[in-house]
Amino acid sequence: MGLKEVLQTSRRYLLAILAFSVLLASILIHSVLGISLSPILSGSMKPLFNVGDLLITQDVPAHQLKVGDVVVLRNGQDYTLFAHRIIRISEINGTVFIQTKGDANPTEDQGTLRVAAFQTMPRGFGRLPWAGSLLDTISRNRIALFADFGLLALASLGLNRFFYFLGHRRKSNSKIAAVRAAETTMREKVKV
Q1: What is the pLDDT of residues 44-55, one digit of tens each?
Q2: Does residue 74 lie within any of the structural domains?
Q3: How far apart are CA 107 and CA 126, in angstroms?
Q4: How far is 187 from 192, CA to CA, in rounded Å?
Q5: If you placed Cys at 99, which of 15, 60, 88, 105 could pair as Cys (CB 3.0 to 4.6 Å)?
C-alpha cells in the first residue's frame, strides 16, 4: 500500500491526531524548553500587559535573572500566579533575593522573594494579546472546558464525515467514469 492510499484511508483521523499532536507538542515544549503560557489577570503591569493578554514565559535559573525582567510568581495567600517586574536583585551564598513591583503599582511588592540560584523561574519574553482571557476561562470553568472538548469532538466528527463522504463520492465518481468508459468502448466495438 502506497503513501497516497495510507493518507486517503486515515484522513478521518487527521483532526484527532492533529489535536493530540498539539497537546503533546505543548507538553514537550514545556518539559524540554521550559516554555509555558500565563494569562494576565490584573492591570498591575499596564501598559506593557493588559488584562486578558497571554504572557509567554521560559524557565531560567534564578542566577540568570536581571533587573527589568518580568517574572511569574505565586501569591503566598491564595497561590494564584501573577507577573511583575524585577526592580532589585542580589545573590548571597547561592541564594538569590528578588524584589518585584507591578509597572502600574505605586509601591513595590511586600517581602523579598528568596530562591536558590539554580532554581528555575518563569521569565516573560513575549505576549499574545487577549489570548489569556480564553485560556483563563477554560482553566477556571469546567463546564467551558467540557464544552470546548465537546466542540472539538463535534468538529472532529463533522470533518470525519466530510472526508468520508468526499472520499466516497470520489470513488463513486471514478466508478461511474469507469462504467461510462466501458460503455463507450462497448458501443465502439458494436459499431465496428
Answers
A1: 999 999 988 888
A2: yes
A3: 25
A4: 9
A5: 88
